Amino acid sequence: MKGRITVPVGIERISFYTPRYMLPLRELATARGADYDKYRIGIGQEIMAVAPPDEDVVTMAASAAIPMQEDFQAVELVLFATESSIDQSKSAGLFVHGLLGLPQRCRVVELKQACYSATLALRIALQTVAANPKAKVLVLASDIARYELGSPAEPTQGAGAIAMLVSATPRLVTFDPAAGIHAEDAMDFWRPNYREEAVVEGKTSTRLYLHALQKTWEHFHEQTGCLLADFDYCCFHTPFTNMAAKAYQILQKIQPPETPKPDENSFAQRVEPSLQYNRITGNTYSASLYECLACLLDQAPNDLTDRRISFFSYGSGCTAEFFSGTILPGYKQHLCTDQHREVLEERTPLTVRQYEDVFNLAVPHDGWDYTFGQYRTGPFRFAGVSGHKRIYARNE
Predict the structure, then answer these.
(1) What is the value of pTM for the model shown?
(2) Exposure of 206 by Cβ count < 10 A (0-12 exposed, 13-18 middle, 19+ buried)?
(3) Does a structural domain hold residue 104?
């Protein structure tokens, strides 16, 4: 196959974190007078992660990175991808840098382009390590998906973070250099500075997502000659799990006519193993694609050694990328499966009233000092605001 990567650079560790609260969508359906099957079957979602007032993108990202703490002193670059930015100037990554005690000889920057930015962060990380194999790069993607109460997009809300350690000693995944890319100026999803909730045109966004998938696949195919049959598994940006189903159907349709038709169970075999986390957390924006990768590594029923994976990353507005990678031998020894299982199974369910109360406790913008009560979080919490400064604390 063309375009195999020759430098041993890739993901050494990957860790996922989601808030300790969740809302069963069956409860939301009852409160909104909706048929639960519209959520469970129509969009493929069952549970929505809910971030309490003292949890934000910083605390989630720092919590996701904790399993990699033995490597922190080797980190020379932190790339923080988010569309839930907390400051117009200071990178959220610098707050994480302080919480984790990362080295001072370190670059830190925040990246933004809707749900795509984590993929650019990964690309930059791979190039950085290829140029300096002694360096390690910490890639963080953390977001809280938030829409207006009662809106059509409400049941797709979610929250979560991914941390990936990229190094010249990869244990999990290496990536091929070829990538299909696409960009165009569009308004399918956006969040102006004066709004806490995103604005989305659902049908437009779905159409653009699938259009960008076709364009990036065509570009990728031109470079590599690959067919869908060359991949054992497919990971997609997943705002809701049925979007991945639509994406896989499109990839099947645009294969050359002479391509053998895949088995009728191919979606269940190639895509479904990556969707279990998203189904019970909701949309995690920039972390979504890599949440699917973490889920696949944790949950695939078969050994993934040397299996080829395709990846499709989409960010509204829009920018997209199609690329591929290979799972490495011995990958199971370096996973955080038990931690992922624990954080998902030990979440506290909320009533709809409790969820709405939390939703309405947004960070005030009036400049006064505020202290937030302590809820269930991971190792870190957002304690409040004083003198226009965000205050973070480590939980005992």
Answers:
(1) 0.95
(2) middle
(3) yes
Question: Helix 241-253 and helix 202-224: axis angle, to 10°?
Answer: 50
Closest CA to 35 of 155, 119, 215, 126: 155
Residue of 61, 51, 44, 54 whose CA lies nearest to 23 = 51
> What pLDDT digit, counting tens, does each position of 14-45 carry?
999 999 999 999 999 999 999 999 999 999 99
Amino acid occupying residue 198: A
Torsion angle, alpha carbons of 253, 153, 51, 281, to 10: -30
Q: List the domain range (segments joined by +) for residue 280.
A: 10-394
Asked if the structure places residue 261 within a domain, the reply is yes
Nearest residue to 18 (alpha-carbon basis) of 281, 392, 237: 281
- Give which of 380, 331, 353, 385 is closest to 55, Cα–Cα: 380
Number of domains in the chain: 1
> Average pLDDT in the 114-134 region?
97
Amino acid (1-letter code) at residue 230:
D
Here the CATH number for the domain that contains residue 246 is 3.40.47.10
Instruction: Name the residues annotated as catalytic.
Output: 83, 115, 237
3-state secondary structure of 168: coil
